[in-house]
Amino acid sequence: MDKRPARAKLWSDIGLFYCAAIWGSTFIVTKGALDDVDPVVMVAIRFAISAGLLLPWVLRRKSLARHLREGFYLSLFLAALYLTQTTGLLYTTASNSGFITGLFIIFVPVFMYLFRREKPTKMQGLSAALAIAGMWLLTGGASGFNLGDALTLIAAAAYAVHLIVTDKYVKAEADPVLLAFHQFWMVAALSLAIALLRGSPLGVASVNGWGVILFLAVFPTLTAFFIQMLAQKHSEPFKVGIIFTLEPVFAAAFAWTWGGEEFLWVKAGGGLLIVSGMLIGELSRFDFRRALRKEVLPV
After folding, report:
1. CA atoms of 275 and 248, how far apart (whole Å)
2. CA-CA distance, 231 to 264, in Å (whole number)?
3. How far is CA 137 from the centre of its chain?
4. Cβ distance 274 to 248 under 8 Å?
5. Mean pLDDT (whole number) for 22-31
6. What pLDDT, in 10s, does the model give residues 114-145?
7. DSSP code of residue 263
8. Are 152 and 100 in contact (CB under 8 A)?
9. Which ranges of 34-140 does DSSP label H, i.e. alpha helix?
10. Using CB atoms within 10 A of its CB, is residue 11 exposed (0-12), middle (13-18) or buried (19+)?
11. Arithmetic mean of pLDDT, 80-105
């Protein structure tokens, strides 16, 4: 019996847990550095470094201009995601940001209906209801919903659209390295342009700020991207989705321990409802009848 496929699946699952954990850590890390650098400038530098690190592989491609159009479309949603999420951290907690960003799973069926006329299932409706109730508890209702929470909600919506459009391009056999590179440098350019228009200070005030930006560029942006891409060759999409629901859990855990944010039971309950909604959203994609018949899964 060849143990290589089982071993590859094990390592891919470990890689996906790494992605969820490293992405979860970014919320408190990013928030801690915003005293040293403007959020828009942070995004610009972060993605410029990531693009530069990808350049050696890009230069091996025959056509550097390939996927420019696709990269441009994706960069708009990626920039919307990170600019709103990072700016939102100025006004909301890292734990709130992590949980609200996790609502992207709830937005996916909404946009699938708008773009492809695929009607949400009853399970997806239930997941949305749980997530909305969770956000109500998490933010303290309408009176507690602040600018940072609103910006992060926009980030979650942008995340969902980015996933859907990326899926379309990847299934069309797009080169993932070029697709990532064009997104990275375009997000950097767009963020820099916005920073200049706003008159934002372009400097980074401390060594710690630079350390955080380098961490964000290398680990959650670059390495996690490639690990996710490789891991998805061996892991079922259903399993990938389930593992990724742990991202907001990691975000809250880092915020409440390492970050020193106050733990409140009502907010923890709201976060639990959001994660439950995410899990139900993923379960709605699973065909249990096919599983009982032991057919090829996951969806």
Report:
1. 8
2. 35
3. 22
4. yes
5. 94
6. 877 777 777 777 877 888 888 888 777 666 78
7. P
8. yes
9. 39-58, 68-88, 94-101, 104-116, 122-139
10. middle
11. 92
C-alpha 102/C-alpha 59 separation (Å) is 35
Collapsing DSSP states into helix, strand and coil, what is residue 299?
coil
CA 2/CA 163 separation, integer angstroms: 34
The token duo for 66 is 């390939």
Q: Which residues, 6+ apart, have CB-to-CB distance to 148 below 8 Å?
A: 87, 88, 89, 90, 91, 92, 96, 97
Q: How far is CA 274 from CA 20, 67, 92, 285, in A?
A: 16, 35, 17, 17
Per domain, the residue ranges of the chain are 4-292
Closest C-alpha to 222, from 12, 9, 7, 26: 26
Closest by CA position to 215, among listed 33, 85, 6, 11? 33
Helix (H, G, I), strand (E, B) or coil at 109: helix
CA distance 37 to 211: 12
Alpha carbon separation from 208 to 36, 41, 125 (Å, rounded)? 8, 15, 43
Q: At what angle do helices 176-198 and 147-171 cross, to 10 degrees?
A: 150
Map tokens 């492809």 to a residue: 116
Q: pLDDT averaged over the chain?
A: 84
Q: At what angle do helices 68-88 and 39-58 cross, to 10 degrees?
A: 150
The shares of helix, strand and coil residues in the chain, as percent rounded to the nearest 5, are: 75, 0, 25
Type of residue found at 47? F
Alpha-carbon gap, residue 72 to 274, rounded angstroms? 32
Supply the pTM of this predicted model. Answer: 0.85
